[in-house]
Amino acid sequence: MWLGVVLSAPAGALDRGADGEFGQRSSAHFELYQDVAIDRAGGIYGSRQFEQQVLAELERAYDQLDAYLGFRPEGKVEVVIYDPAVFDQQFAGAFRFAAAGFYHGVIRIRGATALDVRLSRVLHHELVHAALDAAAPSYALPAWLNEGLAEWFEARTQGKRHLNGPELALLSSAKSNGALFSLASLSTPSFGHLNQHAAQLAYLQSYGMVEFLANQRGERSLREFCERLMRTRNLARSLNHVYRAGLDTLEALFVAELG
Ligand SMILES: [Zn+2]
After folding, report:
1. Which residues have C-beta within 8 Å of that of residue 206, sequence separation ≥ 6?
2. For residue 92, what pLDDT is reported?
3. d(Cα 29, Cα 58) in Å, to the nearest integer?
4. Cα separation of 3 and 97, whole Å?
5. Predicted model pTM
């Protein structure tokens, strides 16, 4: 999820925890701040173990990012782990659904007792946003590509290579209902303006489009495409170079493949 302008909280890491204090620790590529109120809660949230799990998972995702997409942030990425109640209080208004974490200049995580698959996927997803932001800070990627790459990476690193049956069915039905978005309309900086129903389709369509690109010339083509796009910041030329077609043509081919 890329919140864009939805969130009014400052992007700096050191806004207030439950009692305004954050502890700090770091790993090779991440600087982690955690609400000390979680520590004082001791066994309730098991924070030390949770922090270590989050850092280990982020380092794993960092290595996978290079392997799958060929880029990774140069500097350390900041991560803030919140007491769950503080997270809900500060950020609940920014979401239309319960979020385990999100990226907005720093990766913010809702504290928990243990890392689960859902949070692992969130960490992989948000790391793509952080890496794209670090690689090209002043370049506003179209949301379909920013979210599509993040969705593809979080699925692919879980071993999921393709859209599943329900996902394909949802896209096919949207196509026959004339409800599919045009990629042009998904080229805003974020999907923050969409309601939950529309956002679900927008994320899925973005994921589908990136998966379609990966299928055109193999997964390795995404690496080449990302590298070229980050370097040139020219979407049309990067697509033409790697996929031998413009966005309109590729979009039409993708839609044609849907049942
Ligand atoms: Zn995202």
Report:
1. 143, 144, 145, 147, 148, 151, 186
2. 76
3. 9
4. 13
5. 0.89
**150 C-alpha vs ligand 1 centroid, how far in Å?**
6
The answer to whether residue 44 scores a pLDDT higher than 90 is no
Ligand 1 center–CA 129 separation, angstroms: 7
249 Cα–ligand 1 center, Å: 25
Cα–Cα separations (whole angstroms), residue 123 to 41, 166, 187: 24, 24, 24
How far does residue 44's CA lie from ligand 1's centre (Å)? 30
SS3 195: coil
Distance 40 CA to ligand 1 centre (A): 32
Paired strand residues for 22: 35
What local confidence, expressed as pLDDT, does residue 19 receive? 57
Which range has the worst mean pLDDT, 45-54, 111-120, 137-146, 250-259? 45-54
Nearest residue to 223 via CA among 98, 82, 23, 67:
67
CA-based end-to-end distance of the chain: 28
* CA 164 to centroid of ligand 1, rounded, Å: 20
Q: Calculate how far, in angstroms, residue 23's C-alpha sits from the geometric centre of ligand 1.
A: 27
For the CA atoms of 68, 71, 73, 77, what is the dihedral angle to 10 degrees?
Answer: -20
Q: How far apart are CA 143 and CA 156, in angstroms?
A: 19
Burial (CB < 10 A; 0-12, 13-18, 19+), residue 199, is middle
Q: Are 177 and 186 in contact (CB under 8 A)?
A: no
